[in-house]
């Protein structure tokens, strides 16, 4: 119960804008969960008791991945732990086989195991990849980076992981209107949105590292001349995924015009999207028409933030800087 209480406190502090407090609480919850070995699959009890124990472990991991606490969980300990089961199996206490992080490293063809797994499995997986991307960015800053355009580079491996994640996503998880209504009825629309938003954010961060106009660009670290086609590919994908986050918001607002975006981390995805869109205006040939297009997308981003401001303090902080171009 103590770890569960800490998780609720983390959510409360995040919504209140007390980020340092939330970060400290995540560290405590992480250390406690590891000491209690919540990740062990052979724990005693019924299926439902074991599932609750695992779900708590996954919740702690998600917090650790998002807050980047100093108590990083060793992911190898969790690679074979079953990911959360679907809602029906959970409410009925019906044992079932679910995906693992190790399985999700490759393309999973077994549709039955996909359907028995909760949608949070894909959220956890993309956050694990996000951690790898952020670690890659940090290591690139601290030491010599390998040449990302070469086969077998860390960059290409991360690109493959993102593509594998996309291919593993079940067909009924495509972000289209009919599926959005399904998740809306089950009150999971925000999680459904974040599954896709984190994917696009990962791509913005990764490809943005090799876009000259991005603030996090690593291009200046290379002595070797970077192939122009590599920079162009990164730039195209950087902008494409930035636009996709705006399009996600557009689709949600079409289904529910006054939707209250409840996930605080969406604000950071919107920040990355807006920053990339504004950066892209510097190299587009038809700048006036492109800037008009970007302005409309940024307005969508701002609208999502404004809808969130009543309960998300972070949205208030972001909206002050995320302004459309003049």
UniProtKB/TrEMBL annotation:
Cross-referenced Pfam families: Fungal_trans
Transmembrane segments: none
Organism: Trichoderma aggressivum f. europaeum
Protein location: Nucleus
Entry GO MF terms: DNA binding; DNA-binding transcription factor activity, RNA polymerase II-specific; zinc ion binding
Keyword Manganese among UniProt keywords: no
Main location: nucleus
Stated name of the protein: Xylanolytic transcriptional activator regulatory domain-containing protein
Keywords: Metal-binding, Nucleus, Transcription, Transcription regulation
CDD domains in the record: fungal_TF_MHR (cd12148)
């Amino acid at each position: 119960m103590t770890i569960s209480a800490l998780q609720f406190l983390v959510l409360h502090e995040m919504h209140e804008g007390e980020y340092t407090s939330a970060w400290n609480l995540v560290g405590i919850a992480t250390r406690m969960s590891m000491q209690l070995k919540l990740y062990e699959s052979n724990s005693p009890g019924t299926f439902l008791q074991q599932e609750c124990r695992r779900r708590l472990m996954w919740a702690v991991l998600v917090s650790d991945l998002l807050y980047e606490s100093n108590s990083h969980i060793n992911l190898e300990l969790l690679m074979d732990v079953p990911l959360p089961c679907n809602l029906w199996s959970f409410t009925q206490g019906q044992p079932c086989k679910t995906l693992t992080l190790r399985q999700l490293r490759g393309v999973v063809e077994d549709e039955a195991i996909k359907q028995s797994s909760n949608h949070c499995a894909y959220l956890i997986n993309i956050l694990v990849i996000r951690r790898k991307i952020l670690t890659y960015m940090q290591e690139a800053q601290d030491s010599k980076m390998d040449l990302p355009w070469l086969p077998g580079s860390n960059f290409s491996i991360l690109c493959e992981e993102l593509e594998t994640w996309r291919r593993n996503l079940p067909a009924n998880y495509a972000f289209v209107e009919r599926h959005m209504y399904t998740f809306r009825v089950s009150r999971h629309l925000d999680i459904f949105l974040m599954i896709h938003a984190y994917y696009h954010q990962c791509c913005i961060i990764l490809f943005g590292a090799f876009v000259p106009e991005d603030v996090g660009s690593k291009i200046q670290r290379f002595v070797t001349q970077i192939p122009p086609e590599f920079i162009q590919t990164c730039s195209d994908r950087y902008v494409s995924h930035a636009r996709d986050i705006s399009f996600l918001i557009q689709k949600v607002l079409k289904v529910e015009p006054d939707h209250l975006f409840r996930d605080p981390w969406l604000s950071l995805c919107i920040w990355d999207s807006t920053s990339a869109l504004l950066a892209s205006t510097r190299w587009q040939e038809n700048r006036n028409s492109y800037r008009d297009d970007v302005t409309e997308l940024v307005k969508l981003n701002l609208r999502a933030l404004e809808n969130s401001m009543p309960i998300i303090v972070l949205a208030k902080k972001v909206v002050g800087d995320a302004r459309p171009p003049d």
